[in-house]
Write a structure and sequence with these properties.
There is one protein chain. This protein is α+β, with helices and mostly antiparallel strands. The chain folds into three domains: 26-152, Sandwich (Jelly Rolls), CATH 2.60.120.200; 158-331, Rossmann fold (3-Layer(aba) Sandwich); 334-403. It is 34% helix and 19% strand. The longest helix has 21 residues, at 379-399.
Length: 405
């Protein structure tokens, strides 16, 4: 009986931690002014092109120095050092969470953890901080660090959001192979996502956090189908209310009709009249920023009336690509292969399978740490190597553009 009770307590605590991790950010909480004597703390420093080429913040037991090529943090005998891209704007975030056994303290550059370390118990006196900096008397969460990093980043590229249909279309690679914009395209779609709910792992951050981290110029959104199935016409007003905040920079793709199926499969096509109302509401909300797919023929394009087959992904991608200005329906095999490889790398970077060891509830496990120095976590640095691979694959795709018809 005691064992069951303990398991229930652990499960409840873990669930509460996950719910709390996705709570709205409160960057006004814990904000303090120097001088201050702090145990755990965070320091956010903006480094812009107008900043001095090198600078130093030094207090009792703490030193932060940066130049055009590197940043170095020393606190209570622990050291974190990382390269810094020259001639670029950056947000440096130092998070100090004291624990002699675990690497809970870290150095973040533009919302990415680049170094971690263990800091022994004690306090640090921060006597002064530079202009355009913020000091907190608590460790910021990953979600808050990402939000802080948005201050100096220039918007670029496209982000795709949505549920299972969006995931299937982006994983197939057909849309990008046909459309080929010469700028980054990142898929943030997740199976089961709706405008009402987007479940994420512990410490992952919300969908809004992830969009803000990438700072896209435009968003491509695919919503409406799952909401129609779950809530019917009764959920239409709330659907519009939830979708409205995205309307400014979002190109909405209308929900696909449900395919008529024969017994023993359930026929969902009788929901298409209600689905049209969802599409009409999206069209009204977004004005010209809407791609209407309500007239698409879905015959033979789904497995069960809803889930797209590979052929379904291809045909739907053609419809979307035409609306986006694609000049041909021909898919170049070389480009398609590169797009799929790029998206596989992006998937492994954005939502890695070892998330619990990376930023979840297993960061204290030995396998999450460097075998030579257990005070250092090696997963964050290893993960960032994907960014170079993704960029290289993307450039290879763009290099093939002139050869396409």
């Amino acid at each position: 009986m005691m064992r069951i009770t303990l398991l229930f307590v652990l499960f409840t605590a873990r669930l509460w931690a996950q719910l709390s991790s996705n709570a709205p950010n409160d960057l006004a909480h814990g904000l303090v002014k120097a001088p201050a004597t702090l145990k755990d703390f965070s320091l956010v420093v903006e480094v812009t092109k107008q900043s001095p080429q090198s600078a130093e913040i030094q207090s009792d037991g703490f030193k932060l120095s940066f130049s055009g090529s590197s940043v170095r943090v020393e606190v209570a005998g622990s050291l974190m050092e990382a390269p810094l891209a020259a001639e670029s704007d950056h947000v440096l975030t130092v998070v100090i969470k004291r624990d002699p056994r675990q690497a809970l303290s870290g150095l973040w550059i533009d919302g990415v953890e680049v170094r971690s370390t263990s800091v022994p118990p004690g306090t640090t006196v921060i006597s002064e901080i530079p202009k355009d900096s913020s000091l907190y008397d608590r460790p910021l969460t990953r979600s808050e660090i990402i939000e802080c990093s948005q201050k100096v980043q220039e918007p670029q590229g496209w982000v795709v959001i949505g549920g299972s249909e969006a995931v299937a279309i982006m994983e197939s690679g057909y849309l990008e192979a046909l459309w080929m914009p010469k700028e980054p395209v990142r898929c943030l779609a997740w199976e089961g996502d709706t405008v009402f709910k987007q479940d994420r792992p512990l410490n992952f951050g919300t969908l809004e956090d992830q969009i803000a981290r990438l700072r896209p110029k435009r968003i491509l959104a695919m919503f409406g189908r799952q909401e129609c199935l779950e809530y019917g016409e009764a959920g239409l007003a709330d659907f519009v209310k939830k979708a409205k905040p995205w309307a400014v920079q979002t190109l909405f793709i209308g929900a696909l009709p449900f395919e008529k199926m024969e017994p023993p499969m359930r026929d969902l096509s009788d929901m298409n009249d209600v689905l049209k109302k969802y599409n009409q509401a999206l069209a009204k909300l977004s004005g010209s920023q809407f791609i209407d797919l309500s007239g698409a023929s879905m015959r033979g394009l789904t497995r069960d009336g809803v889930t797209l087959t590979d052929a379904g992904c291809l045909e739907v991608s053609k419809l979307i690509a035409r609306a986006l200005g694609a000049k041909s329906d021909a898919v170049d095999a070389k480009v398609l292969t590169l797009v799929r490889e790029k998206n596989r790398l992006w998937h492994n970077y954005w939502r890695p399978s070892n998330w619990a060891f990376l930023y979840g509830d297993r960061t204290a496990q030995p396998s999450s740490r460097d075998h030579l120095d257990p005070k250092v976590r090696w997963f964050p640095g290893e993960l960032e190597e994907y960014r170079t691979l993704i960029t290289a694959k993307e450039q290879a795709i763009w290099n093939l553009t002139p050869a396409l018809p």
